[in-house]
Specification:
By secondary structure, the chain is of the alpha/beta class. The chain has 17 helices and seven strands. Strands 3-2-1-4-5-7-6 form a seven-stranded mixed β-sheet. The protein is globular and about 65 Å long.
């Protein structure tokens, strides 16, 4: 199986692939990764498990190829994105009728003071006033629709419009306030164009049956709705140990759709449901090493713990020497504990003999190398997997070499295969 393409671990291919490009998330992976793996299962009636459904890459590609799949996604926002991507039943007549309803609502309400009063302070800094009025009126017009599937379809079109109409690039993961978009504004025009393109993509799909089941669920916990040993394959890419705060990166959308309103909301409603991948997910003062050593993860992984404690001490020492303010040593411990529970649930869901494919990146916080793929492979053995192998995709981190305090340790992106 030739899966060692350097672009497999990035979302570049997805930007030009129908349905995958309905929500552009730069931290994703290529749909071709799913294609290649499923090529080995043609004619088999397996169900694919995806514990980090994200923006739906695995689930959408499985559906395109006629495979059933099950996915967990802990963020409500992303669950809605996935469900919209998987619904290919909207007709041209239904589309036209609904678009006209939304247009009428926008025309009747875009100049009202009531609409302007709803603007979130963050959104005010990203759009001109006319565009912001149109965006909020489109949102409210969609809310008045009775059909939830149709709502999700047009909400996803609106999500992409936020990117296209903004003054500054808001491509995930960060808002680039130092840059200006030359074609900002014209919210309604862009919304209509995006929605029409989405409809065109649906009409060109090989079938219109929804084959995926999506749960708004945290994969660290047992999902009782998913039976033991019900899946024959897992394809996923867990959060990297790289301090990317997935709660923070989606805040433009979650604030706009009123799922969150401020930093506290992001912490309580989003971060607490995520694998710990950033230092914003916890309080340093809550971590006590001796207590941590008594937890289930530590007790079941004593050899791994010995290595982690050594790295913990070295990272902490280097942070003090460099006057670093980020508690990467604590982050590392939380991350691997969380992933222990993810792997435990994964093993429960997978049938005997099934394989799991995980795209992962290693890291070197404060210059201390953390072999993430190897550590997760060893943890997987503690929850019932029998063997693992690691396959390098590409070298990574080169573009940061010019940073003053950047380490010079070679990093890589890998595929971890569990059996």
């Amino acid at each position: 199986m030739n899966i060692l393409d350097a672009n497999i671990g990035s979302a570049k291919d997805n930007m030009s692939s129908p349905v995958h490009n309905w929500y552009k998330f730069t931290a994703g992976f290529s749909y071709k990764f799913v294609d290649i793996i499923l090529g080995e299962y043609v004619g088999q009636k397996i169900v694919v498990y995806e514990p980090f459904a994200g923006c739906g890459t695995t689930l959408v590609e499985c559906q395109k190829l006629g495979f059933r799949s099950i996915g967990n996604e802990s963020q409500e926002l992303m669950c809605n994105v996935i469900l919209a991507k998987l619904n290919w039943t909207i007709t041209k007549q239904q589309f036209t009728r609904t678009l006209n309803k939304i247009r009428k609502y926008v025309e009747e309400n875009k100049g009202t003071a009531e609409t302007a009063a709803k603007f979130h302070p963050l959104l005010i800094t990203l759009f001109d006033e006319q565009s912001l009025c149109e965006l909020y009126c489109i949102r409210d017009g969609i809310r008045r629709l009775r059909n939830k599937d149709v709502q999700q379809f047009f909400n996803l079109a609106l999500s992409q419009t936020l990117h296209k109409a903004a003054i500054h690039p808001i491509a995930v993961p960060y808002i680039s306030r130092s840059k200006l978009l030359s074609d900002s504004g014209k919210a309604w025009e862009k919304f209509q164009t995006i929605a029409e393109q989405m409809l065109g993509d649906i009409q060109n799909m090989p079938h219109h049956e929804q084959l995926a089941t999506v749960y708004n669920w945290d994969s660290r916990a047992k999902n009782d709705a998913v039976a033991d040993a019900c899946c024959g394959l897992c394809i996923t890419s867990p959060p990297y140990l790289n301090n990317l705060d997935y709660g923070e990166v989606s805040k433009v959308h979650s604030h706009f759709f009123e799922m969150t309103n401020d930093w506290n909301d992001i912490t309580e409603k989003v971060r607490r449901k995520l694998v710990t991948g950033a230092t914003t997910h916890y309080r340093d003062s809550d971590f006590v090493m001796e207590e941590f050593k008594q937890k289930e993860f530590a007790q079941h992984n004593q050899d791994v713990m010995a290595k982690l404690v050594e790295m913990y001490n070295r990272i902490e020492a280097n942070a003090k020497q460099r006057k670093g303010k980020k508690s990467f040593h604590i982050l590392m411990m939380h991350y691997f504990e969380d992933m222990y529970y993810v792997l435990k649930e994964m093993r429960r869901v997978l049938a005997e003999g099934a394989e799991a494919y995980l795209i992962l990146g290693d890291s070197a916080p404060y210059g201390i190398y953390v072999p993430t793929s190897q550590i997760l492979g060893d943890i997987a053995l503690s929850v019932g997997f029998t063997e693992y192998s690691i396959h390098k995709i590409r070298s990574r981190g080169d573009k940061w070499k010019t940073l003053k305090n950047r380490h010079n340790i070679a990093l890589s992106e890998n595929i971890l295969i569990l059996k």
